[in-house]
Amino acid sequence: MNRGRCAVVLSFGLMLAMGAPARASSVDSWTIKQVQTTDGVRYMSGGVGDEEEAAIKRIGKDFDLRITLATTSGEYLGGGSLEFRDPAGRKVLDAQAQGPLFFAQLPSGRYTVQAVCAGAKTESRTLEVQEGRQTQVTFHFPVAGTQRETVERGTVD
Question: Is the pTM of this model over 0.85?
Answer without folding.
Answer: no
